[in-house]
Amino acid sequence: MTHEFKHIVEASIDAKQNGLKSVLATVVALDGSSYRKPGVRMLILENNKMIGAVSGGCVEKDILRQSQSVFQTGNSKMMTYDGRYRLGCEGILYILIELFQPSDTCISSFNSCLKKRISFNIVSHYKKEEGVFKGLGSTIQFGNNLFQLSDFIQEETNLSLFSGKLPPCFKLMIFGAEHDAVQLCELANYNGWEVTIISGPLESKTIGNFPGATAFYSVSPDALELSSIDEETAIVIMSHNFANDLKYLLELKDSKPAYLGLLGPSKRREKLLSQFMEYCPDVEASFIENIYGPAGLNIGAETPQEIAISIVSEILSVIRQQTPMSLKEKRSGIHSRITTN
What are the angstrom distances between the C-alpha of 107 and each of 5, 26, 97, 130, 263? Predict the structure, then answer.
């Protein structure tokens, strides 16, 4: 996922500043089932510290051991992990291990891409065999700019390619600054989302009151900057003020977020939408259809923490296009079919 790769890049920068090399491990193929899917990555530092994970914990020690020769020789290699003979998932993982050496220009382009919320692609050249082979390695592309993540020559034609498109980091915008907004902010951040808090102009709170928040704005509804809302953005309106919630909804009428939730009971939602329609009778039907209110899944949530879990769960079900259900009732695989994120 994009936020995981962001953490990998940040960790590699810190390691380089401390004189440590970094190795990138990428799951490039899978036969059978596994805890995680191709495209997941982790970083191993020269001091044996690991950032991220590619499984539930059963593969990482083997990757650490296999990475030592890459640190020593600089040669990329393939390793396999056969879970059929372990206590983990019953699948075979194919993992590319390479020195992680993005150039300064590459890192600058990456940061610019994140800031502009632009998708990018990572392509890994691999082989479904264990060992060291010429041409193994990964590239990253931002628009027309292509960079290698390790030092390899792209001349081999007998290699397979794993390509993954990484969208902008998923973002949650919370309109409200009460106690329950703090809980939702913390949970969303823990999930790897960027979180923006929007409060009223008279609020005395700051970003320091919201652990994990990426940005904080104390502005009136008509002064909102909404151009960054895209298909990787979820919105939850929870100011606990009916007039403010209506104003927020009016300002958001032309936006197209992936999810728009309203906190509060059904009667409040109906009253809010009724007044909203009086002001905006010609609003697109898709905007109304995309409103989830009361926000959250029916899990019996009572406390602010439980309500936050309910809301985040509903957001995930919407953006992954899944119908909430108990996994014991699901007859197919438990993972959603999504592209690398």
Answer: 12, 19, 20, 30, 39
